[in-house]
Amino acid sequence: MGIFNRNFDRPGPGVSKDAPRKKGAARYFEVLGRDWGSFWKASLLCLLGYIPWGLLTGVGLLTGSLLFALAGGLVGGAIAGPALAGLHDTVLRALRDEPGYWWHVYKRAFKNNWRAALAPGALLGFLTAGQAFLICFLLMGTIRADLLSTAMLTLNLLLTGMCLPFVFGQLVLMEMNFATLLKNSLFLALSNAPWALLMALVQAAYWVAMLLLFPLSVVLLAVLGFVPVALFCQQIAWRIMDRVFGLEEQFRRRREAELEQETPS
């Protein structure tokens, strides 16, 4: 796997610590262009991790079994969770301009986060499998779409999209139990509702576009994957989490302490 392990034993690229960061769209395209290779590789691994979810949920959809779809989503989501955490870790490291070759850092982060990512991944897989099942059968007319069911499905989709970047952002940046992770994510999403809603709408628009463009979207996913939407959402989520938890300062102090330990006296 040569594309994953080149030069990971040497100090990695970065940017000057004194260089002012761009904002908004300029920052988005700066980071996207600079770290596209790392993003694409992390996204590819994430897509591979979601194959079991797609197969198991697909069987549930084809057989019309909601129970099988939910169980398959739960299991498939747990399998995909660590890879999804690896993607968000890669994106967040790029946003805070952390140096290091991707594969070396990715392996270390994966080892540290894979257990913690199982439960969030399973929950996300369960929710998205249920959402996919309901949307599919609503469109087919098998399930009657009344006002209440449509409102509940819409709320479910929005809350999932609003919380997801915060769930995996906190997971790779901080250590906390699953209950605290969910509670914090809900609080961050609701207390920053306009920005969180924007993240949810962008995610929904992206995946609906992929669905409508099928089978062309198979090629687009291989090229783009999760990258455009993950970077967009984490650019927003990182700013919010940094404001609330002071993460940038914590990472700066940690890095300075590491450098002092490495410097011979």
First and last CA, distance: 40 Å
Work out the radius of gyration.
19 Å
Number of helices: 12
Helix proportion range: over 70%
DSSP summary, beta strand count = 0
Shape: globular
Low-confidence stretches: 5-15
Structure class: mainly alpha
* Main sheet record: none
Mean pLDDT: 89
SSE pattern:
HHHHHHHHHHHH
* Relative strand content: under 5%
Structural features, described:
Helix content is 81%, strand content 0%. It is an all-alpha fold and 265 residues long. Helix 5 runs antiparallel to helix 6 (102-140) and helix 6 (102-140) packs antiparallel against helix 7. 34% of the residues are buried.
Short description:
The chain has 265 residues and is mainly alpha-helical. It has helices at 2-5, 24-34, 36-49, 51-63, 66-95, 102-140, 147-173, 178-191, 193-212, 216-223, 227-245, 247-262.
Considering the chains and any ligands shown, give keywords for the structure.
about 260 residues; about 80% helix
Show the helix and strand layout.
Blueprint: H1 2-5, H2 24-34, H3 36-49, H4 51-63, H5 66-95, H6 102-140, H7 147-173, H8 178-191, H9 193-212, H10 216-223, H11 227-245, H12 247-262
Helix pairs in contact: 3-5, 4-5, 4-6, 5-6, 5-7, 5-11, 6-7, 7-8, 7-9, 7-11, 8-9, 9-10, 9-11
